[in-house]
């Protein structure tokens, strides 16, 4: 797994969200974007992370920062997850694993002595011109949204 670095151009992508609507990275040009990758909808850590973004979402909107979550789950799973937890932001479908691979977050994982391929919990902050401004390679799900807001407060 080789992550993108600060200053790299964020790889363009097109996909659909939990409602079947098209999502394109270039549509976020001119605004900062939190692009967070997570392993699986409706699992304990991913739910904590999504709910922390939900709870802090008004602050992100207030400062003009968009939030997109990405996993390899289907449109149907994303829709169920967003409805269950009332998530106000977009979840991007990446069933073909193209986005997770382009962003270097797909890789070997270990859990309880078992090795497997999966999505690593990584977040990128993409600047207004489409470059990587900050990378969070190790994420604590319940504290991460606040950590990003702290960073944004310090740099703006």
Can you put this structure into words, describing what you see?
The protein has about 160 residues and is α/β, with parallel strands linked by helices. About 30% of the residues lie in helices and about 30% in strands. It has a five-stranded mixed sheet with strand order 5-4-3-8-9. A two-stranded antiparallel ribbon has the order 1-2. Helix 1 packs parallel to helix 4 (about 145-155). The longest helix has 19 residues, at about 45-60. About 30% of the residues are buried.
Radius of gyration (CA) equals 14 Å
* Low-confidence region ranges: none
Structural class: alpha/beta
The helix count comes to 4
What is the spatial order of strands in the main beta sheet? 5-4-3-8-9
Average pLDDT, rounded to a whole number, is 96
Query: Sheet with the most strands?
Result: 5 strands, mixed
Order of helices and strands: EEEHEHEHEEEEH
Task: Identify the notable features of this structure and list them briefly.
156 residues; alpha/beta; two-stranded antiparallel sheet; 4 helices; globular
Give a short summary of the structure.
The protein has 156 residues and is of the alpha/beta class. The protein is built from four helices and nine strands; from the N terminus they run E-E-E-H-E-H-E-H-E-E-E-E-H.
């Amino acid at each position: 797994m080789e992550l993108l670095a600060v200053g790299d151009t964020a790889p363009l992508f097109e996909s659909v969200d939990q409602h079947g609507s098209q999502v394109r990275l270039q549509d976020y040009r001119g605004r900062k974007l939190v692009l967070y990758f997570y392993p699986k909808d409706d699992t304990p850590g991913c739910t904590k992370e999504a709910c922390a973004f939900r709870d802090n979402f008004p602050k992100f909107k207030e400062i003009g920062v968009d939030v997109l979550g990405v996993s390899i789950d289907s449109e149907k799973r994303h829709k169920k997850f967003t409805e269950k937890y009332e998530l106000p932001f977009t979840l991007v479908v990446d069933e073909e694993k193209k986005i997770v691979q382009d962003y270097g977050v797909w890789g070997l994982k270990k859990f309880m002595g078992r090795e497997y391929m999966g999505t690593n919990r990584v977040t990128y902050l993409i600047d207004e011109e489409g470059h990587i401004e900050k990378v969070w390679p190790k994420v604590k799900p319940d504290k991460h949204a606040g950590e990003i807001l702290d960073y944004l407060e310090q740099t703006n």
